[in-house]
Amino acid sequence: xxxxYMLPSxxxxxxxxxxxxxxxxxxxxxxxxxLIPMIILGIIFYAEGIDWPFIIKMVLSGIxxxxxxxxxxxxxxxxxxxxxxxxxxxxxxxxxxxxxxxxLDFVRFIDTRTLVLNxxxxxxxxxxxxxxxxxxxxxxxxxxxxxxxxxIQDFQFxxxxxxxxxxxxxxxxxxxxxxLSEREQIQNHIGSVVDEHVKIWGLRVDSIRLLxxxxxxxxxxxxxxxxxxxxxxxxxxxxAEGDRDAAVNxxxxxxxxxxxxxxxxxRGLQTIDGLGASxxxxxxxxxxxxxxxxxTISNLSPEAIQKMVDNVKPVETxx
Length: 319
Fold this sequence. Notes:
This protein is of the alpha+beta class. Among the domains are: about 25-75 and about 80-110, no CATH class; about 115-220, Tetrahydropterin Synthase, Chain A, CATH 3.30.479.30. It is about 55% helix and about 20% strand. It has twelve helices and eight strands. The protein has a three-stranded antiparallel β-sheet with strand order 3-2-5. A hairpin with a 2-residue loop joins strand 2 and strand 3 (about 90-95).
């Protein structure tokens, strides 16, 4: 029964582990330092003659040198070695060559570079009861190697679990609209909450980034329809505003042209020019003076028109 409850937590543990471990740089150095004295001792013992004492001396010398030289370690530039002597904290050493006393000291190397952990996908219910799945990445730095080893059992796993819990708590107190529109504020809030707690472990959160927010498919379709309707609404409003502005401008232009006959003629010429030269277009020019004459005649009374007709003399032609 205990195995059944422990198995679901194993994948989350794998997310919390780093992708690489301590770079063993001291192995070749220890081998060279061990080999050179062994060659010198072999030459000295060989001069005494090859016999059983020679073999015993070589074996014992090799074991002693192996134990002495086995305490040499090399820490990379980005590593610090936390040394425990007889179970108690002794010192933080590195980078470079360090030495630990065999059988008495234990060293654990800590990476002080910016580390990244994958925050597994979390199922979250927002404040307005919308389910969502969120995953992210956590970037942090080990600022105190001693506390990272002595204050917490596994700081990498611990900070990953705390980041997951903080993500669920903070996102659970927000609505869906806030989750989608205020991603930067959410990231900063989660980072500050996690950083405030992990300081006691000798860690510092650099940043946390939400990589993906997965919503249910039916909710995505409804949001798509809502966005489409919103865009159509804005397009209709924009078109109506354009028609209104065009009507106002056309009314102002018509008023200007009605006050100046030359402006109306220029507008007519522009219209003709816009038609272009094409055999399919037939253009009939009608003098603007005739239009003015027709307007004048239409404003006269029937008696005035009859009087004008009576005053017109017929044109006499020569025979």
